[in-house]
Every structure is written in C-alpha cells, then in structure tokens.
Amino acid sequence: MNMESSEIWSLKTISLKAIYTSLEKILFQKNKQKQDSSKLLKRNLEKKINKRRQLENVDHVDLMNTYKKKNKEIDFNQTEGKNILPLMNPELMFEVPEDIDNWIAVLCPDGIRCYVVAKNNKTKAIATSGKTINCFQSLFPYGQCLQDNRIRSRRIQTVLDCVYSAQLRKFYVLDVLEWLDMPCTYYDADFRFSFIESRLNLIQGINKVSEKNYFPFEMAPRMVTSDFYQYILDNGKFFPENVNLDRIYFYNPESYYISNTPTALWLKPFMITDVLQKPIND
C-alpha cells in the first residue's frame, strides 16, 4: 500500500468513525428525549390524578361522622402524624416487570387514602398531609375510649395504610406500618399482608358497625397477578353498591414498605389493556 492509498484509507476510517459517533449521539439523544418525555407525561398524569383525588377527598371528608367528646367537636385542623412514616407511594407502571405474574395485585376503591392510628384509647383517621380528618372508636387494641383507662398507653400504637370509602362508610386496609408498637415496614409485602389479615380475623366484629366500632374494616381484595387477569374478566363489580375500582396496586412480594419504590406500582383500570396487554370488562 503506497502513501497515498494509506492516507485515503485513514481518511475513510476517520470518516466512518465520525459517522458512527454521530449516529450514536443521535440515538442517545432520541432515547434521552423519549425518556424525558415519558417522565414528563408521568408527572403530568400523576398531577392530574392527584388533583382529582384531592377534590374528591374534600367532598368525602364531610361525609365522615365526627366523634364528639363532652359535647365538643374535635378540632380537625390539628396536625397529627408527624412521627409516622410517609405512606408508600407506588409508581405508575410504564414498563412491565418480567415477573409481574408473581406480584400481588391489590384492588383499591374510590376513596380517601389515609393513615388509621389506634392509640390512647381512640382511633384517628389522618390524611396524608398530617391533618386529622376523623376521630372515632374502633375495636383495635387501644382504639376505643370504652376500654379500661388503666391500660391506657401513650406509647403503644397501631398504624394502618387504608382507603376510606365514603359511599360504603368503610375502611379498606391496604397495608400495615405498625402493630402494637411493632414496626412492620421492614418485613416483605407477602408477610405484611398475611400478618394484618390474620390480626383482623382475630378481632371479632371489626368488620361490622357497633357502639365500640364506628366504622367497619376489611382487607382490600388482593391476589397474585396471574389470578388477577381472570378475576377482572369474571367480575364486573369489585365492591358493593357500585363503588368504582379506582386503581390497582401491584406489590413485589419481597418489597419493604418504603415511601418511593419501584417495587410497588399502580395502574388505572383503563390502562390494563395497553400496559399489561390483557383484556378487561368495560
């Protein structure tokens, strides 16, 4: 190869490398723009949904019975829950995990997402903002004023992650953060769900309205995702009295209770067909 041919070959090689590098940059920029666009769409969608839920919650709060003590209304503007961990905030599912069929699907009705705290012989429903939205009696340990004051404890508490259905006047339990002062957030989802279900089953009358239990509590329906597909085909109604299915949470069975985590995801019912590629009943 003479000098001239060598120079031409070198120039061609440099030119090809430059073209290849340029193509890589273009592809990278396109992927980055696509990711940024997806993140923006996700944020906008979450803002719209959260705004809608906040507006709905304002209306629903007025429907909850207030608990009266000595003929005086509880001040619901007081801030509570300062020492409670943030509620788990599942991410919107854009990409389907490979093992999604093994995840746990939890059906969430229309309602108010809130903490329920049983402590000091009373039970409080606390909004995600930390404001007390209701104070009432329940059959949870230390959750009712009719209990013997000698067992009153300011330290021992139970904290649940719930959704309150104003239409049904019922709390649906999504998860548990603490039970009788035992932290549950570092246990995996599979254990937490089994544990809180077993605790509820042991409290006779917790699912009914009574003098000692102002609101019924029950587990939000849940199942393995592989069973969920057939379940949504077989069932047109998921909750009594035509209460709408608001969303479906998907939990990795090994996930801890963390505020923001990719191991907990959610979808609206209308998203299932597009995202999971599964048919649903309209």
TrEMBL record:
Its main location: cytoplasm. Keywords: Cytoplasm, Nucleus, RNA-binding, Transport. Pfam families: SPN1_m3Gcap_bd. Residues 87-269 form the Snurportin-1 m3G cap-binding domain. It is found in: Cytoplasm; Nucleus. GO terms for biological process: snRNA import into nucleus. InterPro entries: Snurportin-1 (IPR017336), Snurportin1_C (IPR047857). One of its GO terms (cellular component) is nucleus. Transmembrane segments: none annotated. The keyword Cell membrane does not apply. One of its GO terms (molecular function) is RNA binding. It comes from the Eukaryota. Functions as an U snRNP-specific nuclear import adapter. Involved in the trimethylguanosine (m3G)-cap-dependent nuclear import of U snRNPs. Binds specifically to the terminal m3G-cap U snRNAs. Belongs to the snurportin family. This is Snurportin-1. It comes from Sipha flava (yellow sugarcane aphid). The gene is SNUPN_2.
